Here is the input.
Amino acid sequence: MIVVSDTSPLNGLVKVGHLPLLQQIYGQVLIPPAVADELKRGGEDDPRIIQVLSLDWIEVCQPINIQLVETLQTDYNLDRGESEAIALTQELRADELPIDERQGRREAIRLGLAITGLLGILLVA
Here is the structure.
């Protein structure tokens, strides 16, 4: 199973102490560089968040379709992390995209991507 994650589900799971659920459910999780950057910035306020990047089952993967990333940012007002996560999910034909932000979810669904959120992950667990 291929899973690409946006930042918010990772942050939320870290904060409630349930990040290992992702590994138990999905095995490996891919994140784009912009999500890694957001995790680094979040780690300035909460050191637990930056530790996500040191986990061997989290892998940073660069999306190739930069045009889609830029379109999602400019035309749909998504941030870089959401845009890269959606583009990477589409490119890899990933099975699922954990994403919580309403507008990002809407655009992912519009592109035909399977999504879940923090609550969905907790429900599966």
